[in-house]
Amino acid sequence: MTAPPAHILVVEDEVKLARFIELELSYEGYQVSLAHDGFVGLTTARDAKPDLIILDWMLPGLSGLEVCRRLRTTGDKVPVVLLTAKDEVSDRVAGLDAGADDYVVKPFSIEELLARVRAHLRRVQETEPEVLQFTDLSLNRQTREVFRGDRAIELTAKEFDLLDFLMAHPRQVITRDRILEQVWGYDFMGDSNIIEVYIRYLRLKLEANQEKRLIQTVRGVGYVLRD
């Protein structure tokens, strides 16, 4: 069994904004739940156990700060990104003291919010098992070994890093820009076709014995690991 996409809970009472965030997160491959008031948000957080919460400060019922405080008092360590129009230092301190992990001021760019989400999910993923498994493909992060069934596959360092990133996000459509950012780094200035080249290398090695293709192209967008 492969890990499902990360589950993100969005607690936001502005319905249009909540829907916009939901669509953007879904496009990135995340599973998304919505709540429009503090009580429902708190209940959903406790019942659904999301991987990350995007939480508005000003909510009907319970405020975002109170939702965060109540989660932390029960030992819940889920990453919380607080959304607010408040931008004073004292407000930032209050949010962090309530247990929020991050703070995004409205109005914000969706690109910034998505970057914060990715950063916090990466920190959570650091505690994941060393071995990633997808159908008959396995990758050991500690030994840097890759197997397709019983067949060992020799990969270069960058091929391994690319496959690791894809296997950490199974069935999620990942854009070329995100792959460049995460595998090659923000400051990469090399050949713009580098991703296509390495995807081709990986396919040749993963399918050397006529195995089923797992790395699939989503035209105009990027790639997805899908069985």
Automatic annotation (TrEMBL):
Alphabetically ordered keywords of this record: DNA-binding, Phosphoprotein, Transcription, Transcription regulation, Two-component regulatory system
Domain Response regulatory: from-to ranges: 7-121
Record-linked SMART domains: REC (SM00448), Trans_reg_C (SM00862)
UniProt superkingdom: Bacteria
DNA-binding region, residues: 129-227
CDD domains from the UniProt entry: REC_OmpR, trans_reg_C
Annotated ranges, domain OmpR/PhoB-type: 129-227
A Pfam match: Trans_reg_C
Record PTM 4-aspartylphosphate, positions in chain: D56
Stated name of the protein: Response regulator transcription factor
Organism, scientific name: Trichocoleus desertorum GB2-A4
Lineage: Bacteria, Bacillati, Cyanobacteriota, Cyanophyceae, Leptolyngbyales
